[in-house]
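Worked example (supplementary).
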Amino acid sequence: MYMTETKQIIARKSLHHELVDRLQTLIINAELEPGTKVPEKALCDQFGVSRTPMREALKVLASDGLVRLEPNRGAWVTQVTEDEVEEVFPVLGALEALSGELACKNITDAEIDDVRALHSKMLESYEVRDLDAYFTINQQIHRAILHAARNSTLSTSCQALSMRMQRARYLANMTEGRWYDAVQEHEKILEYLAARDGPKLASTLLHHMDAKRASVVRWLQSRKTTDDPEQ
Amino acid sequence: MYMTETKQIIARKSLHHELVDRLQTLIINAELEPGTKVPEKALCDQFGVSRTPMREALKVLASDGLVRLEPNRGAWVTQVTEDEVEEVFPVLGALEALSGELACKNITDAEIDDVRALHSKMLESYEVRDLDAYFTINQQIHRAILHAARNSTLSTSCQALSMRMQRARYLANMTEGRWYDAVQEHEKILEYLAARDGPKLASTLLHHMDAKRASVVRWLQSRKTTDDPEQ
DNA sequence: CAATGTAATTTTGAATTCATAATTAAGTCA
DNA sequence: TGACTTAATTATGAATTCAAAATTACATTG
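After joint prediction of all chains, the assembly is encoded as:
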């Protein structure tokens, strides 16, 4: 009856875990706006759950830095501030650099082909300026490298930090120039990965992250001067 | 009535946050044994709280990897396995290396003096073979460097991972030889920090972590063959 | 007596309830 | 009117309750 495999799939995660995922998505897609209060009751209604699992989820998100809990005042969606960006990207850079080194040691030929395929798809998205698709595939590439590093602790840490930056990265519509540079960097990433050149891949990824940092910071600064400073 | 100041002190963080701290301590000190079930009810009784905040705390600890939640089966204290150690220390190494580089850029002369003082105290603990004190001061030094790095994201990440390794590190009673080497490494750490030589401090910290990793792994392996393999 | 099935008990996950703190609205008085 | 109180409302934190799942204890059968 082919039950052996389904067992794993059927065992659904608990409600609070499901909620953590859903809320993460809402926050990343900025459907819950940064700086605003998390509407606990409304979300409970929306998902049809009671406050208990919702509050459990909020506590987990708070420890991940996606929301901030103020005693007796509820949960607030954290802002992506310039200071935070300047903090998180260097850490992410160090971790991605490590992932590059480890990936070069452990990646299989088949996995390199997978990344190559993703890279081609990403180039296509770039050609037609489909930012949405570009971001998605970009993420898949980084995740594939992370997977090849064979270190789940590293993966978890990276993805938690990525998550915090993602909304900023997504919102920070890349300029034409930055986008071109990013594509060039990815060419090198693929090249060094295929050559299994750990040190060069590491330093390329480090530089890649630093360029992303600078790009996001520039966007935040332009926004600061342009936008009305409410909130 | 001098209430103004006590207010702050009395006004403790929320219950679940307090519980996260308490449970972390219990787990690090192995008062909650690795591999065993977290006795939810007993802990609620012990701390005089209901299950709600206790369960919130357990969810946070689970996302930090200190406990594992099994749906409908409760929370279990995670084991420090050899695989996990081989995973976590490289990540910790990369992060500490970064903290060293950043610390060299930002540390003040006064802070270097503080580290120097801690270092002396640590040497005294080593002379009299007071492992308990040695570990405590050792941690304070690493924390001081982290603080000098001026990156709270980095601090949080480092400390979360450190926490997971700490019980292993503490239990892994160092051999005389390893202890001597560790002290030598710390001499270098102080030297490069005082000289504000980022790259050298980074690579020393990286090596320091790798040596710790090897030491803990050796202990886990010896334990595996010595101990009865129950659980 | 081992193996399987069934009932009793305990534990878990989540909803509900309740006391308290914070916010908003209404009222008071200069 | 406008600042300051005070009352009403709402939201939060945590205890309690309740249904469902898992575990244990027990019984039955081969």
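Two points are worth noting when inspecting this output. The radius of gyration of chain A is 19 Å. Residues 222 and 228 of chain A are 12 Å apart (CA to CA).
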